[in-house]
């Protein structure tokens, strides 16, 4: 069953309200599948309720036409933020309306047992898993495998540090789509990492990669794999199993100093080129972060791991603090994933305290 | 080693962490709940009347605000409300020169918070000590030399100031004994390898003055090494350090922070989990997870300012947890991003081991002294 023509959201809400006022028994907002739906003052919550009702009626897709004014500012962003994890969403911008098309709702619904912040990334990956099989081991490499209910995780490692060359996950019948998708991403994450780093930080990386930053996490305090979702505990069990089998657990492995560092491409660029690339990202972000253009200047990028920025204009200090962290995320996404963002250093002008 | 010394060392953990004695809060943290800091390390001002050559505060400059009586009163009220257990007035300024110093000690104690202070001790005259010692859990004098000439050189002051400080310490010890106060009085030497000639004179002086302990610690440096600390240089003075420790008696504990000195500035962990338990606040009122991140350079970590906003609101706010979560995420690597051997180092080590499942949190059979200072 699928919705044939777009639902007129405002009309639907109006019908609901009208019925609420005149009907005593047998209340319904209209079509049969809408019986489960209750609108909400919050438009996003209201749309989510609508999608849930459609899903319960075994529909796989839905189209909704909604006034831009109903959604409010940053409508497209707000709609994606609120509905992305419910299916494959496209938002068409019309003169006064948005036309929402949500597809693959059944597939997305398979992830409802996973906490919301991780659903979207998991269902996007689900069905597209690539890491099913490992290359054969040769003289320099060996395969380590660990089986648990849900599947078998295997890694091909080489050298004394047991650096991961490749990884695979073979799901069994007990594996749900979420575990398969998560383990597939874990296979990707661990490549080129020493096994000690895998053991210490792979699941933290997995959780972070899957987390949707637009969604408020279920955890109020510090997010750790153990409190983020049971899925990560399962992933950690696979990692622990491989670690045990590697034999490294009984050896003195020393301190893990692994850090991928900046990419070769970034390191090879001249400081002026790096500054230019960073400035471009800053210019693109200023309006969004500070609410005015040209407010973030790159001072220098002569160190290949660092960018120093300076704020211009009168944005409040709290906004600048937040913007610095946001800026770092943008620069890591668009320039180099290991960039650290610094602001201009302030020197101590005390006449007593002296630097050497 | 006599049983009495073992007892003394057991009571005063000077080279370790007491986080294992706060399992209720650690469990809440692991469950993802918002936990209040156990300890806050802060200053009441950024200013200092000394000019110590090793001073890390020179690297911590940030936009200044004044912590006045209203600000500190509200702050202490908020700390008590959310469950902060101890506040140490140490951090990046000399708190005793703030006009609100005595009030802070009194009011904090009145609100049920354990209060402590790290100071150069210069303005803590007998009358001032009479006022504050009853309210303090510990008072630690920063003194990096045992001889007046070297004191003046290392701490950037006149030689006479050494005499003043020594007299002040004598008075503190006398007041403590006279009134039977529980306040622990100690000395701290921040040691650069080039101050090695002062280790034994200071250890002797501490014994003579009758303080409870002398702790000798490494000098922290920032990630660029601006203070020029030669961490390899410590290995050459291990024998002198051991000789100083041997001066310990039943009532005087001389302790070297071996774990940090021997670490030579390295960290075994990459995530910083300690900041929510051991928070730092600058003498400007700036709330940041760590003192090493006070400088404006680290604006991305700056959370708020108690001179502008109530601390309980800062703590409950999104920004606080955004920054704390950043430190716990793969976005952050303490081995690359931080200076050496921060205040949270031992807590970080313990919690990192706990998260990785490689270590349990250790605790002895008897609760140590100063549990509120993690």
Strand order of the largest sheet of chain A: 1-2-4-3
Main sheet record of chain B: 10 strands, mixed
* Silhouette of chain A: flat
Structure class of chain A:
alpha+beta
Task: Round the mean pLDDT of chain B to the nearest integer and report it.
Answer: 92
**Mean pLDDT score of chain A:** 91
Beta percentage of chain A is 15-25%
Most extensive interface between two protein chains, with residue counts: A-B, 50 and 61 residues
Secondary-structure class of chain B: alpha/beta
Q: Strand sequence of the main sheet of chain B, in spatial order?
A: 7-6-5-4-3-2-1-8-9-10
Order of helices and strands of chain B: HHEHEHEHEHHEHEHEHEEEHHHH
Low-pLDDT segments of chain B: 1-10
Beta-strand residue fraction of chain B:
5-15%
The residue ranges of chain A in which pLDDT falls below 50 over 5 or more consecutive positions are none
Main pleated sheet of chain A: 4 strands, mixed
Helix content of chain A: 40-55%
| Number of strand elements of chain B | 10
Please give the number of β-strands of chain A: 10
Describe this structure in words.
The complex is a heterodimer of chains A (356) and B (374). Chain A is an alpha+beta fold and 356 residues long. Helix content of chain A is 42%, strand content 17%. Chain A is built from 13 helices and ten strands. In chain A, the strands form three sheets. A four-stranded mixed β-sheet of chain A has the order 1-2-4-3. In chain A, helix 6 (116-125) crosses helix 7 (177-190) and helix 12 packs across helix 13 (317-334). The mean pLDDT of chain A is 91. Chain B is α/β, with parallel strands linked by helices and 374 residues long. A ten-stranded mixed β-sheet of chain B has the order 7-6-5-4-3-2-1-8-9-10. In chain B, 54% of the residues are buried. Mean pLDDT of chain B is 92; it is low at 1-10. Classes of the chains: A alpha+beta (356), B alpha/beta (374). Chains A and B meet through helix 8, helix 9, helix 13 and strand 10 of A and helix 2, helix 12 and helix 13 of B.
